[in-house]
Write a structure and sequence with these properties.
The complex is a heterotrimer of chains A (175), B (378) and C (80). Chain B is mostly beta strands and 378 residues long. Chain B contains no helices and 19 strands. The chains are: A alpha/beta (175), B mainly beta (378), C mainly alpha (80). β1 of chain B pairs antiparallel with β1 of chain C.
């Protein structure tokens, strides 16, 4: 802010504050992330079963990618919910990938031991895939259709969100 | 002088505070005064947007302090304080509203507060604004010279004190390992702002110490600004530093500098240490010993207004547990902390009324502050 | 706000602070949500033990001339 004559400084600051507050409020309400309708960026990551898994292998299935970390409370809360969704819709051609974003996987492995899941867990220690998908918050969920296109993006988790996931998975599985 | 309610005004606006209950027992020993009692806080959210909290706090005071002029029975008093508050979360904004009531035989206080907190820039920044309004009723207890008057314990109500307080703060994530918090606060008080129990001292023509009534201004405006930093150390520890400056219309200028270190030593145990240094310049109308009676318009010998500094060293230990019963308790901690405070007055001597002024030492004392508390999350 | 220079100064400081921070509206978060591991640790919280912090603030406020800017909200007590 260039220095101006004193009587105008407060007025300028207040105008700037007003316009930027409005912009920031609207900006923070809709955080930028991967756009629905675009092709999902491909990637290949180590999985917990120590084989590599690449996204292109899953074309033809409805894929839910969940970005999580053991230090994030809502992420931990969401895991059993995701496990239920996986079990229910797997026979219909649905798969779920839990992408762990932690640089060191020791805490994640510890959590999985106490809360085991049957869907694949992938490790993204360098945040390459997190950056590719412009992860807007922890946790984040991206749902892809059978052609590999991004259809739905969710930021955060609150108990009850799973009914929305269920509706969206069901509609995609029917396509 | 005010007591506080456990509602943090600085914090992340994007989530409601954790549901928790805290049971604290506090104990102060120093300057011939013992103050102890409980502080209980219970917080519960009713849905994703609304959270309520209630606090009950007690100070049980037993005093044989330097203000009590004889060695008769100590002065005992109990102060009880209750408060309730509500937090409402809408998007990235949290609105808070609360009320505090404090009661003791010679002082009644009602305070209302409101604040708004907004999280922005992907939760990197949180800005808060708050307003507090207080209405106090000040009285004088009939305890004099070590005992109560023939009619028993009585309070004479002397005056009112009104307080208006504005706060603004910014909490900012600077890097993956560094947090910063900036706070400013303005406090305006008017009414009866002095202590009815203290009296000033002057030298009479014979060179002996005599007492006279205090006269303090009936308005006081103070401004405070503080900066706090928290840094994550790579071996899983945290370092924090803080600085606060305060200045008011009574002429007091004060600096506070503090640092702390927190070190988890296992998955359940965490230790911490703190150091805090405080220094203040005296109020313009403060005097330890006035040269003659009625020497100024405003006269006070309240040692809280003196030139003074204190150093506090503290340490604490916390043990985290996961109870298997009841199942709705997620986790709990047991905490113990001890602070040692060394208080030194530069211009307050332990004069006795009717005595001389030669060889009277500057006043100062050490105090022990102990806290034991259990916290439960559910 | 009428009269009080202290209050005007504090208000101006608060507004200028907020305006400076908000003046570059196009700032993208430079610490990504998946990089918040250390910041999410309870030892990095400003209010890990609110009841204890508020009590210590009260201990100091009763005996010192200064008050405020600690992040807690005030009530009233005689403490004389």
């Amino acid at each position: 802010m260039k220095p101006t004559a004193h009587p105008h400084r407060i007025a300028l600051a207040t105008r700037l504050l007003g316009c930027c507050l409005a912009a920031a409020l609207s900006w923070s309400a809709s955080a930028a992330s991967i756009a629905p309708g675009s092709a999902a960026p491909g990637f290949q990551l180590h999985s917990s079963t120590s084989t590599d898994l690449s996204l292109s292998d899953l074309k033809g299935q409805v894929v839910l990618i969940n970005f999580w970390a053991s230090w994030c409370g809502p992420c931990r809360q969401e895991m059993p919910v995701l496990e239920q969704l996986y079990k229910k819709y797997k026979p219909a051609g649905f798969t779920l990938l839990g992408v762990n974003v932690e640089p060191k996987s020791a805490d994640a492995m510890g959590f999985l031991k106490s809360t085991p899941v049957s869907f694949p867990i992938l490790f993204d220690p360098d945040s390459k895939v997190s950056q590719l998908y412009a992860v807007p918050g922890m946790p984040s969920t991206v749902i892809l259709d059978r052609t590999g296109k991004v259809r739905y993006v969710h930021q955060g988790y609150k108990p009850g969100d799973e009914s929305e996931y269920q509706d969206q998975i069901r509609s995609l599985v029917r396509e | 002088m005010a007591a506080l309610f456990a509602l943090a005004a600085v914090g992340r606006a994007a989530v409601l505070p954790d549901d928790r209950a805290d049971f604290l027992w506090h104990d102060w020993q120093g300057g011939g005064v013992t103050v102890d009692g409980p502080s209980i806080l219970v917080r519960k959210s009713v849905n994703d947007s609304l959270s309520f909290a209630a606090n009950y706090y007690v100070d049980m005071i037993s005093s044989a302090s330097v203000d009590v002029l004889s060695t008769a029975s100590p002065y005992k008093e109990t102060r009880r304080q209750g408060s309730i508050s509500a937090d409402y979360l809408h998007g990235n904004t949290t609105y808070s509203l609360g009320f505090i009531q404090s009661n003791e035989p010679d002082y009644k206080s009602n305070t209302g507060f409101f604040s708004v907190s907004q999280s922005m820039f992907g939760d990197l920044t949180t800005i808060s604004f708050g307003f507090t309004r207080g209405w106090d009723k000040v009285g004088e207890d009939s305890y004099q010279n070590g005992h109560y008057a023939d009619g028993g314990r009585m309070t004479t109500w002397i005056g009112d004190a009104d307080h208006r307080n504005w706060q603004a703060s910014i909490s900012q994530i600077l890097t993956r390992n560094l947090l910063m918090s900036l706070n400013v606060e303005t406090d305006e008080s008017d009414g009866y702002l002095q202590s009815p129990y203290r009296s000033a001292r002057y030298i009479n023509p014979e060179g002996l110490v005599q007492t006279e009534n205090q006269v303090t201004p009936n308005t006081r405006t103070g401004n405070a600004g503080s900066l706090q930093l928290k840094y994550y150390l790579p071996w899983h520890a945290a370092l924090d530093g803080n600085y606060r400056i305060y200045h008011d219309t009574w002429g007091i200028l004060a600096h506070t500098l503090g640092a702390g270190y927190t070190q988890p030593i296992s998955t359940s145990w965490t230790l911490n240490g703190t150091v805090r240094y405080y220094t203040q310049r005296a109020a313009t109308f403060y005097g330890d010993l006035f040269p003659f009676e009625d020497s100024q318009n405003f006269i006070s010998r309240d040692r809280e207004l003196a030139q003074y500094h204190d150093l506090t060293l503290g340490m604490g230990a916390s043990w985290q547990f996961h109870p298997s019963w009841p199942r709705w308790i997620e986790k709990g901690t047991l905490n113990l902390s001890y602070d040692r405070m060394r208080i030194s007055y530069n211009d307050f001597h332990n004069y006795t009324v009717g005595g001389g002024t030669v060889g009277v030492p500057l006043y100062g004392y050490d105090a022990n502050v102990t806290q034991f508390f259990i916290s439960l999350w559910y | 706000m009428p009269g009080n220079p202290h209050r005007r100064l504090s208000a101006a400081a608060a507004v200028a602070l907020a305006a400076t921070l908000l003046s570059a509206c196009s700032i993208k978060p430079w610490v990504k949500p998946y990089e918040r591991e250390h910041l999410a640790d309870p030892i990095m919280s400003f209010d890990r033990n609110p009841v204890s912090d508020v009590y210590l603030d009260h201990v100091f406020e009763v005996r010192e001339g200064a008050r405020g800017a600690t992040g807690s909200v005030g009530g009233g007590c005689g403490c004389n």
